[in-house]
């Protein structure tokens, strides 16, 4: 995925499915300078956040 799409997804009111290595995630925020996004898993691990490269995210 690219940064422009990440920004669109974050600002969208729609529920857009995004995967990180095959796992469904929410995008919490992004860092354009580092081309990263802060995500958390949709499966209930809401406190488990991680920063990942936007290139590792895939829209489903």
Automatic annotation (TrEMBL):
Major location (coarse): other
Pfam families: SspH (PF08141)
TM segment ranges: none
Gene Ontology CC annotations of this record: endospore-forming forespore
Keywords, ordered alphabetically: Sporulation
Annotated localization: Spore core
GO BP field: asexual sporulation; sporulation resulting in formation of a cellular spore
Keyword DNA repair tagged: no
HAMAP family in alphabetical order: SspH
Family designation: Belongs to the SspH family.
Protein name as annotated: Small acid-soluble spore protein H (Minor)
